[in-house]
Amino acid sequence: MGDRPQVLLVSRRALLCGSAASLLVAGCETRKASQTVDPRAYQAFFLWPGVPAPPWLKQAREVYLLAGEVRHQAGSRFEPLRATPRVPGPALWLVVRVERLDWSEAIHRDVQHALALWRAAGNRVAGLQIDFDAATRGLAGYARFLADLRRRLPPGIQLSITGLMDWSAGGDPRALRQLGGIVDEIVVQTYQGRRTIPGYEAYLRGLAKLGMPYRIGLVEDGSWNPPAHLAQDPNMRGYVVFLLGNGS
């Protein structure tokens, strides 16, 4: 998500461990006293093409895999970035990195075809995630794009998006409500490149304004001190860790 290839792309949390309604329970995760993000303490991950999957990843509950991208150039198509996976165990999210929203019908067909191939290969496909750096002031236009995309998705496929921390502070409440009525979750990025963004605590205090289920995107080996209010927010569904291939 965000800057390629280092930023998490990088689509429901119950507060009880093992709840069937939740694929990731933040309350069940343990962290080192150093507050460094140890991926092995979490259960949902984003994996960039070319980053080797650690052996323990097969025990994950969910894995977000960057499948392809739609670049900003005129006439661009969906560009696959990996072969169709065959991953027993974790539920998979097919992630598309997006640089433009004026999709042609060919792009829509290519993305739908990729989803069909992933399902036909025997994977448990949870949904499609769109990784687009939507400006805080441009959320209304983004909502229109997502509404059109949503109606095209096959049954059983959820829709996830990535989001910037700025949204919770400066996003138009009406536009955020529109997004909340379209997507199943938003993964809020707390880092840039390989490092946690300083001052993330202040941004995260406004997450309740999103009005939709969200997860927090963390970066492997980044710093993290979870704000106390997150445990009380019913819309908080857990964490997604962006793996850097550090050999954890």
UniProtKB/TrEMBL annotation:
Any Pfam family hit: DUF3142
SUPFAM superfamilies per record: (Trans)glycosidases
Superkingdom, natural source: Bacteria
Entries under InterPro entries matching the protein: DUF3142, GH
Protein's name in the database: DUF3142 domain-containing protein
Species this chain originates from: Novosphingobium chloroacetimidivorans
